[in-house]
Amino acid sequence: MTDKRCPYCGQAAVEEQATNENTKSYSEKYICLNCSETFGVNVSDSTLAPEKHCDTFYFSQGGFFGGSQFIKVEERDGYADLIVSSPYGNTEDRVDVRFRIMLSEWQDIKTMLFYDLFVLYWNETYHDPNILDGTQWEMRLEFDDRATVEKSGSNAFPALYDELVDYLQPYFDQGDFERD
C-alpha cells in the first residue's frame, strides 16, 4: 500500500504496480483497490516525464457571490513567475500580485500536480446541471513538447480537487488583500 489516493474515486486503497526491472522505462504506476482504475507515470525515458516539459500552470476558481481568483505559474530562464489575483473585482480593477519563485519551488508544485494529485487523469469537464449558481473552476497546463491540457468544471469536481485547493491556498492567501 502507498499513501497515494486514487484520482478517480479518491480512495487511499492504492497499490503500486510492479515494474519490469529488465526494461529501462520510468514508471510510477498505481492501481486503485477500490475502483480498479490504473494511473501514474509510465514513460520509456525519464526525460519525457511531464514535469520536465510543463512550463505553465493556470488555475482559477470562483462563483457569482464569492468572487473569483486565479493563480498562474510560468517558467522562465532560471526562475518562475507566480501571479495571484485578488479575489474580488472585475477584470478592469482587479489587482494581481506577482512573485518570482525558485525553480525548486516550481518543481515542488509540478510534483504535487503530476505525482500526488494525478491531474493528467482528471476528466476534461465536470458539470452538475442541477446547480445554477455555484463554483466554476478551470485548470490549464502548457507543455513545450505536447498539447495543452485543460480541465474545468461547474459545480462538480474531481475526487482530489479539495487537495489541490488546499495545496494552493497559501498562494491564494498572498493575493487576498484589501484595496485602498
Automatic annotation (TrEMBL):
What's the protein name?
Uncharacterized protein
